[in-house]
Amino acid sequence: MIRLVSLGPVTLCLVAACGASPTTTTALSSQQPADAPVVTGTTSTSEPAPTSTQPMATSTRSTAVPPPTTTSVPPTTTTVLAGEPWDLFVPAPSDGSVVGVANVKHDDVLNVRSGPSVGFDVITTLEPLRMGILGTGDGWILPSGAIWWKIDVDGMIGWANSGFLTRFAAYTDITDRVGPMADSATMLELGQSVAAAVASESIDVTPLITLVAAPGDVADDVAIFDLFGLADDSVEGQRLRITGGPAASGFQLLSVESSPMCARGGGGGIGLCP
Prior knowledge:
The protein is mainly beta. The protein is 6% helix and 36% strand.
């Protein structure tokens, strides 16, 4: 008697069609991709071996039919890069132009990845005040709207989110523009007060204020803030270097220096950035 047990093939359709070999597609986006699903398709047939008995001189002969062998074809994985090249408003820094890290908190780092998405491996990290990074002229925009720049870090080529990179102009003293400030109990509080006062000068938008160097990171009497998000087609923000000095009630303001962040080389033709 022959008994046939079939588990049946398991077939998974991805995108628009099914193929003989299951395929898993992982799309890279601005978010960390999920683990690729495990797709299996196996047909198994078991058949007990029939036996027959014939009279022989002194023994019984048994004939067994070996079970069929099963060949398993592993699923394939295809990586698809979402988005398209970017060279429009706020284009990527030209090949060899210099940019620096911006808007990264003083206790954090900027990841540089092997491709233009968080789905790629981190190849190095950059400190919040890191300068001297070279552009390559290449940019990439994801469906989410995030723009990534291809950069050269000491000869290592990688990609970083453009929201954390910018072209810096030279520092200028703006202490007189800030005006008198009340003394603060700590240097950090003094820096926060100055940054908030400068941010309030913006009419169209309120800039994002990021502490990129806390007192003690550079010097005990220095705090550095990035103000990002100005509604301007050439200057997208500024870096404030705030220096204080001892006072009877804590710290008093000594100086405020501003380094504009240029949205494009040459500050949009106004000569701020190289």
